[in-house]
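Student:
Attend to each token:
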Amino acid sequence: MALTVDPGIDHAGGPYVPEGAPSAFADAGYCGRSFEEGVLRFHDAVSGPEFRAYVRAAFPEIPDPQVDVLAFDWQGRQILTVRQPLAGGAWGEQELRVADLAGGAVQELCTLPEFGAILQNDLVGQLFGQAQYDDFREANGAGDAVLAFDECVEYTHPLFLGGADSVANMAVTDTAVYWEVVGALRASTVPLAPGTRVDSTLD
């Protein structure tokens, strides 16, 4: 089964192809569209450059100067196209990673072909934690609500600052504001030694 498009949610910014990536997802018409009730959205020509800059600012330790964004999930986690450095100044094949702002980390995801297979085999909900998304909506009396293209569900107290991984610690927010504010806070923690106490003013 292919992705289910969310009707009435279309950012309409035009096609966007991450730097150095194939155009398959743009060619399929995914850019600026929302799928599976907001579980997954694909960047377009407006949101792509904006969030590429947010990711590079929040995670300055990513070595690839061409790191770019492809899509994002209901928690605002950004799906990155990124290469790993090899010996002699060369770069490996472009793969996908997830920039998890709440957790303050970049995690492995899959290759681009594997991601295409995930989209076609109805595994998006499993990969991006749709069960927790549904729990959040139920807890807030919005079981059928669909996030707008520019919204996500944030942890009001980020996990990397000791916040609880629970729906009680979640709220809908503007994704750009979330990445600008929490991204700057996350970047400021990069030079700190492990275990350093960081006082948050986000509560």
Observations:
- The longest strand covers residues 5-10.
- The chain has a mean pLDDT of 91.
